[in-house]
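INPUT
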Amino acid sequence: MKKFLLLSVIILLGVAGWKLWDTTVSLDRQITSQFEGARWELPARIYGRPLDLYAGKELQPQQLRQELELLGYQSVDNTALEKAGEYQINGARALIHCRSFTFSDGLQPAAVIELSFTGNHLASLTDRQSGEPLPFFRLEPLLIASIYPGDNEDRLLLHIKEVPELLIKTLLLVEDKSFYHHLGVRPVAILRALFANIKAGRTVQGGSTLTQQLVKNFFLTNKRSLKRKAKEAIMALLLEYHYSKDEILEAYLNEIYMGQDGKRAIHGFGMASRFYFGRKLDELSASQIALLVGLAKGASHYNPRKHPVRAKARRDKILHDMADEGLLTAATAEYLQQKPLGVLERIPSGVTRYPAFVRLVREQLKRDYKDIELQSRGLTVFTTFDPLVQQAAEASLDNVLSALEKERKMKKESLQGAVVICSVDQGEVLAVVGDRFTSQDGFNRALDMKRPLGSVIKPAIYLSALARPDQYNLLSLIEDSPLAIPAGSKSWKPKNYDKKFHGQVPLMQALVHSYNVATVRLGMALGLETVIGTLHNLGITKEIPAYPSLLLGAIELPPIDVLQMYQVIAAGGYKSTLRAILAVTNQDNELLQRYPLTVEQVVPSGAVFCLKRALEEVTRSGTAASLRHRLPRDLRVAGKTGTTDDLRDSWFAGFSGSHVTVAWVGRDDNHSTGLTGASGALRVWSEIMSTITTDSIEDDQPPEDIDFYRADIRSGMIVDNSCSQGELVPFMRGGILPPVTFCGASPQRSHTRRTRRSQNGFEKALEQGLKQFMRIFQ
Amino acid sequence: MKHYLLVSMACFFLLAASGCVAPRYSKPVYRSTPAPAPVRKHTRRQTRKPFEQPATNRSVPQVGRQQLPRPANKAVANFSSQADRQMNQGKLKAAAQTLERGLRIAPKDALLWSKLARVRLLQRRYAQARSLATKSNSLARGNRALVRQNQQTIEQAR
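OUTPUT
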């Protein structure tokens, strides 16, 4: 009997021991597999362009301030600028303590830079420490969006070396004094806590070490049970066995729950610092560190935004303890206790403020990355986004639409609009506005809306003509007279906007004044296929049906496609496929992919050169002449208005020397707005272009095959050299030329035509004769 | 006899061409300031296909870089020389990135475009090398050395 009892006890102990062993082994496996490698799913971060700083750059102090405020820099009174993220702008001088940032081409360390301005230019740029002038400096780019993992945890991963010493000391002081000495659990502390809790009848004391807290957060659920507590202790011991103290501390600093923003859960001190103070962790003051450390005990309970009194009491107690421990002087602690919490009132939103641009980025990312990669790998996406241009576009669109509604007594908020902007020579998309109410991430009119183009399409037709220099030039006369094109049983009779016909008009004038009938005649003479070919060359990828109404823009495209078309024209026939992304790096800042600049010549440069001359004339004397008093005097631009039937769509597409901008105004219900391209979209366009820093259209270097002649662009004739009147007009060398008029002689159309014909006939005869001549000698 | 007739006809045409037709057009009037003054009286007849951008070879005062405010040149020059170093070290991707940064500041700088063309050539991205060199030519404003360099790139990239 006695033996039997002993045997049972041994077996029982054996079973229990085996069970414990088994549990431990399985927990061990769980720990090592989960703790190794990628511990967290890290959101992808999308950044805009960095603001380039260099002497000579066109930049006003106000624009610099705008950029710094977006980046969350704090304006300070003193010139010490102790912490990164502080700046001072004083008249024409500025001091910035720039944060460090890892770009796709490497780290740019933090630095204090001194800037001086003269007028609208940055005059000098100096590194304060060395006193040396800097040839170039980049401000850190603006974080414009994050792509969160499924669990919506948001964190900024920190390396232990990046964490201020004061924070670590304070954390250990408050949460686990003997962290560097225990083995993961402190049995004495547990017993003491147990005793205190039993005595009080509720939980008043916790005996958990940091390691146990990490285990609880990282591996286990929040359920309270003895079994879970036991598991926690075993896992804490195992964790300590496998990993160093610093590794455990680092994981704790990144794992701990620090707050909530809607669905987004804020984890770790790195993100918490941004979330509460808009700063990087190493920029925090002692009182801010005390507040964050206080949150570790219970981020909801001590939420400084919801329960500021509670949070302040907690912070002040920690400041007091810090002084006791010698981390601060008593006087400093007392001084800091008087200070307010200093928490940002406006939560730096985890939801992007620029949903329209981010949509474009995600569309381009989709080609190379799966959703899961974007949500979990901590990728950094560098984009071409320019926050200053974007803000100008957003504000201009809303201002102009509100003004239009008021002026024309329309219902408030009945108009909608879209704007897209890119750089001329690189096709880098700088801004996308897909909705007048910009924060709405709904229907993106810039990318998804398909609307008829109206006259915005016309440059493609004129370009097709100019690409045939043996038939057309800018002054070729084309017929603007009644026209009927058979369409089934009926016929299509295009009309001009002014309901008049203008007889024979020089090609350039037909475009400048947007004459419909002349354009249709020209397009039909060229052939629809030719025009469609040009549209494809200009970057329109979708299939285009060959209907004559195409010539007046009866093709529906989103503004972004129009942007590509005009980019090619603005860049002199060189297409750069529109890009929103420049590079993607991984969590370790290694370059995964670059999206390089590409150029391809898709239309003859001579023809584009001539077309640009006509499009500039549109803004001087044509349908967009109102730009003359809307834009700064010396800013030369080119572009084209577009209006569709019943004034449903109002377009303006055009460019300066550095920016291509397309604006659309209309209504979502597709009713008439009563606006032409010139009275609607053009106003949005001009307001944007006069707000942003942009270059004038330079006198481009004419292509080799261009000659200039002085000409009267209204009559369409070259003027004799002795005349002082006339303007310089480009012509393709070797192409046909218009007749010459002599000074004093008033240009007469009928006379002109006769001369033209006879000359052309004569030239042909001459050429044939010469060919014959050459053949003799062959 | 027939030949004689044709030759005299051709001569007549030639005379007519020089005597009657030419004076009807006054000589091309070029822009004088600020930039392009493509003064070249004797031109070969164009034989190139229209979609090809011919290399220019004009005696035009060089503008472009000079048009930038002086200090901006420094930033551009800085990128330019940095890209040279990277190219010499065989860091072609980095060189391309540097040149793109330079082009963001000075998008009309023919030299930067030319160097980018060179990088693409070394990366064996021939079509891009040709396009970029052509683009550089279109901005070269008569910088003969640069045009020659671009022409070389184009030829090597064929």
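end of record. Confidence is low (pLDDT under 50) at residues 747-766, 772-778 of chain A.
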